[in-house]
Amino acid sequence: xxxxxxxxxxxxxxxxxxxxxxxxxxxxxxxxxxxxxxxxxxxxxxxxxxxxxxxxxxxxxxxxxxxxxxxxxxxxxxxxxxxxxxxxxxxxxxxxxxxxxxxxxxxxxxxxxxxxxxxxxxxxxxxxxxxxxxxxxxxxxxxxxxxxxxxxxxxxxxxxxxxxxxxxxxxxxxxxxxxxxxxxxxxxxxxxxxxxxxxxxxxxxxxxxxxxxxxxxxxxxxxxxxxxxxxxxxxxxxxxxxxxxxxxxxxxxxxxxxxxxxxxxxxxxxxxxxxxxxxxxxxxxxxxxxxxxxxxxxxxxxxxxxxxxxxxxxxxxxxxxxxxxxxxxxxxx
Length: 333
Known about the structure:
- Helix content is 21%, strand content 32%.
- The protein is of the alpha+beta class.
- The chain has a domain at 207-331.
- It has a 7-stranded mixed beta sheet with strand order 1-2-3-6-7-10-8. Strands 11, 12, 15, 16, 17, 19 and 20 form a 7-stranded antiparallel beta sheet that branches.
């Protein structure tokens, strides 16, 4: 029998941790949903905080501990009280436009839990091989999660010229957090999804300069730098206000490649009126525009997600990204 991995949840509370963007370095999480930008202060993720061990948790944190134990991996409580479960597809060895990339650049199954009154709203993105999609969907639908109409929001590609081919399944549900966690674990078990986290590593990039140019919050996972930029709007789904950590921030993932260059995967969250201007700006700077689509059915305001990819000198890529974001109502730090 395979030995169970240790389970630990890192608790990061607004009142306990007030870090600048330059202090952010989070161990063991993936690429999505990291920007927790509070309206009154700049808060960020911390790196390996021993104060956040599970033994120090009380109240709601104990519920998050139970949720994390379902997945048998480390979870992270980020500002806003959101629990993130991030599961990189380390079994895949993807290439994008012929460039070998790490899972943390955009191949991470992520599940985010946020309390709403007496219940929890859960948003998830699953990274699935084509052959895994329908077995996972069958298992997901069999769980009878409520509201059933939003369990399956989107099924799509995020990349062009990708090997192997994968799809991204998005969904939202509301209910008891542990019940939902068990249902999602059952569904994911129909795939080859590994249930383990990744370590931070080092990027070999000018992390702080890149984040400063873009104007976002940075973290490192599996030697990939992720920079997140939140929106100025109040974002609601199914009538509930979402924290920026609930997969509603733009995200840019940088991986060092040969000759001092970097590969970057960008995911911009955009109003419909912003899509054309952002796509034009990215194409002007030779970014590959790979997809534009919704991730949610009942999000307000209506947002679309534009995915892009490029390689080049890292600081130049960061400036091009900022040029594109300047066409949007983003909240820079």
